[in-house]
Amino acid sequence: MPKLKIGIIGAGVAGMSSALLLKNLGHQVSIFERAKKLERLGAGIQISSNGRYVLNELGLDNEVMSSASIPKSLALFDASREQQIGKVEIRNRLKNRYKRGFLVLQRADLMNVLYNKIKKEKINIFFGSNTKPKKSNHKIVISISDKNKYLEKDLIVVADGVNSLWKKSLLRENKFKPISQSAYRFTINSKYLPKNFVNDDLNLFLDIGKHFVSYNLKKNSLVNFVFCKREKSKVTKNWRKKISKEIFFKEFGRSDILERVTKNIDHVYKWPIIESEIPKTLTTKNVVFIGDAAHGMLPYLAQGANKALEDSWCLNKLLQNRSFNLKTQLNRYSTRRLDRLKRLDKASVNNEKIYHLENYFLRQTTKLFLQFIVKYIPGFIFWRLDWIYKFKG
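Now predict its structure.
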């Protein structure tokens, strides 16, 4: 197998995990990151068994687990009535079903684990690199715009996030879908919360046209809250925006339950939920797109970080092929990943419809259905998603 010179655009979860895997194959890997230092934006994230499979292959699963929590149960609530719909034990159930339980942790902790491994493997990260693609003969080269410098690579892996400048340039037919939803996030020390919000469960509160999730983060006894809703007002297009608690109430809605959980905070962070159309291809010439740069989807399967890890693993597996032809392997990667992305996208859209029901009759019918499932056939919740969580590339 030929050893390639590989440039990776972006030092996020997708970029760093792919760098580690490709370096392990013996390729010469460098990362180019636009930020001047490693960005640890984000709050809590969920790593399901498919993401943990890749972390295990990277030799990082135990280290990530040491910074994470493993939820004990999935608890469903009707937020409008402050009434529990039901609860399913998941800590042992998921471990038995998928060999690995699901983790919740701060995104910054996952980034730190990946970055420390990058340094240990002596992979170069060039921070402050404003890159863009430039066509040269039959290849794409990396243009370092502020240094008037061009770098030729055998393979360029683009992992620069949902607002990818490379995708805008090279996959021009790919468009963003209209931003119609927002997420509001904050973490708070558990000592400032009512006791019923301090538990080891993954708590899902369903409301009229909106929902929110809370779960405990291991580090510093923090509890992570994420609120999502369909938007009728103007949506911020910034990656994150700090807003006051009063603005949050005005936009998301005020209720007794929200008053109690936000009693000791002054502000929350508002994030746009950005969804892009699934591209026709994930590769062009010697460039391949992974992570959110490939496709930004709704977060209602909690698969953002897992999808990034999967992309890295699948690219790594195809580049191991002994009958090696780079163009052929990239096309195979594109075809296989697009099939899975379409399924993930559809499942995420379906979850959004369930989470954000507004019709009273549909809400009550769904509530009764969920009560029945949780009480009598809880395994059904995960059976329908086995195709996601049993991933092994």
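The first strand starts at residue 5 and ends at 9.
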